[in-house]
Amino acid sequence: MKPTISRLISLDALRGFTIAAMILVNYPGSWSHVYPPLLHASWNGLTMTDFIYPFFLFIVGVSIAFAYTKRLQGGFPKNEMYKKILVRSLKIFLVGVFLNLIPDFDFSDMRIAGVLQRIAVVFLVCAFLFLNTDWKKQAYLAGSLLFFYWLAMTLIPTPDEGVVMLEPGRNLAAWIDRILLPGKMWEGTWDPEGLFSTIPAIVTGILGLLAGKILLEGNNGNLKANYLMATGVPLVLLGLLWAQVFPINKHLWTSSFTLITGGTAFIALGACYFLVDILGKQKGTSVGIIFGANAITVYVLADVLSLVFYYIEFGGQSLNTHFMNGITAIGISSKLASLLYALLFVGINFIPAYWLYKRKIFIKL
């Protein structure tokens, strides 16, 4: 039976709400006043915020399965698809580098790694995998990469330390980045979006491919929702078990972190698919769909708009500082004021997203 390909409102909405959540946690009114769940875990551990980026990479994988299954069925030549995949990956990567350069454009202090850069690499690898392997090979590769990463990180001594370590800047991934990654790194001696830790991040994308496979098979929606959620639960449990020997760590994108966040993404997608696409409970999804229609464009726009709100001063202070001072002056706590500002900034970014959506302008980087 050929895969059934139809537009999933749940997937579009989940993509958009994930981007909105990225903007929410990236642009508080003040980094000195943020509720703990809206911050990444300082090292080992997991907060609500740590799920956002893996969810987006997972959705990238699901979207690849849908987009390229349709192209394959349409008879598109693979060589043409390869070219478009390479071009799109390069564009996303270069936009990420551009965002790292603004506002100073100091090429001598340029950071090559970044969020969009990792998205570009994951998209590139997963798209090529999808076009050339079946789901069994993808699952086998995912498991093999996670085991390889675990063994490498926990058995190979860091050359400059002479011992195995999993501390900030003192681990095999950080050492590899210092040797191979050009430009500056986010934390000086290490980068959370570095080269070696991109390997398990690719697995997050592969998990999305596998979820896409489930959604594309057959016409029984209830069964597909059940499969998604039933796949997610053991992945989370396996991740929790693995965490006993390989800690949950977003900065290192450990194997346990990959399974827990990926499994949760399976469960979330299955639940959303059941509620939205099967039961038809679409109320409230429009905001997510609008953000998701131009997801990466909105992410880039938020970074550019932040220059106006965070860096350009009016009356000797930035706009976010004016907001924080004004709101706290009427008795609202600093953390709540910071959250309200972040919500306001999400709303401001919704305006161009809505404008693009209403005019059916979909910018595909």
Structure at a glance:
It comes from Cyclobacterium plantarum. The chain crosses the membrane at residues 12-31, 51-69, 85-103, 115-132, 139-156, 195-215, 227-246, 252-276, 288-312, 332-357. The chain has 365 residues and is mainly alpha-helical.
Provide key terms for this protein.
365 residues, globular, 2 strands, mainly alpha
Q: What do these coordinates show?
A:
- Helices cover 65% and strands 1% of the residues.
- By secondary structure, it is mainly alpha-helical.
- Strands 1-2 form a two-stranded antiparallel ribbon.
- A hairpin with a 2-residue loop joins strand 1 (313-314) and strand 2 (317-318).
- Helix 1 (9-26) crosses helix 13 and helix 11 packs across helix 13 (334-358).
- The model has no long low-confidence stretch (mean pLDDT 93).
SSE topology:
Elements: H1 9-26, H2 52-73, H3 78-101, H4 115-132, H5 135-155, H6 172-180, H7 198-216, H8 221-242, H9 255-278, H10 285-293, H11 295-311, E1 313-314, E2 317-318, H12 319-329, H13 334-358
Antiparallel strand pairs: 1-2
Helix pairs in contact: 1-2, 1-9, 1-10, 1-11, 1-13, 2-4, 2-7, 2-9, 3-4, 4-7, 5-7, 7-9, 8-9, 10-13, 11-13, 12-13
